[in-house]
Amino acid sequence: MEIIRPGTAIDFIGKRKIAAVISVAIILIGIASLVVKGGPRYGIDFAGGTMIQVSFKTDVTTEGIRDALKGVIEGTPVIQSFVGKDNEYIIQMEEVVTTDLNGVEELVKGSLGKAFGQENVSVSQAQMVGPKVGKDLREKGILAIIASMGMVLLYIWWRFELHFGVGAIAALVHDVLVTVGLFSLLDKQFDLTIIAALLTIVGYSLNDTIVVYDRARENLKKVGGKGDVAAIFNKSINETLGRTLLTSITTLLVVVALFVLGGGVIHDFAFALLVGVVVGTYSSIYVASPVVLLFNKRVAKEAKAQAKS
Fold first, then answer.
1. 96, 129, 162 — which closes off a domain?
2. Which of 4, 50, 137, 197 is least surrounded by CB atoms within 10 angstroms?
3. For the segment 78-95, what is each residue's pLDDT rounded down to a tens digit?
């Protein structure tokens, strides 16, 4: 199946400066949001807190649950519903009036029981994450992302060349920063599921980038490493464009279904993937290849300078 006609010659590389300005602007807006808000809004996995899963035998709303918990919880709890499970909710609380898990469970169940009837409320599970544990999980999550990028650099360096690896890392850092910045702008929580989403984005973006790199290497071999490298990369992007778009559209259909039908529990995870697929496709074209060209020009200049000397 072909969605791009053979011989298509869109000048992607010629628009790399415009794309660079757009990317830098989006990243700076995201960083500014993080600075203004004092960093990401961490979920209980990273900040510490309590999570309680509650089932109701009567119809309730998230606002009704929130009103019933006033006075028990300091701050605003995050309440998420389950798709396919009527009147079952997860309540996430950063601060409560007691640090004992059983005490928290009884307080929440008692408050909800007063509002909806004790016989209509049951607690399925409850768990508490301490601040120190949350900090440890946060640090390990960041290290996981950094380690994955380090392995990507080594792999691309081994399979292609070092400047190809730098281009791939630039694209991955771009994707992560854009996603994190958008989460900050929309005031969405960061937790372990988002770390999983970011690692998934890294893998997806890398796959698109390798497809372009592989075709570029083949085309460079055909001309014996000579010729206009920018034109060769542009040709390679166009030749793989149909495959890239088909893969992205197919993936988006699944992720959109997950986003729309998945419910509150995985809503943010699906949203991160949704952003990552779009941004990853963009970066494989407008970030990874232009960075390789930038380094290639520097290498060529250094070689000429050494030849003259």
1. 129
2. 4
3. 887 776 567 788 888 776
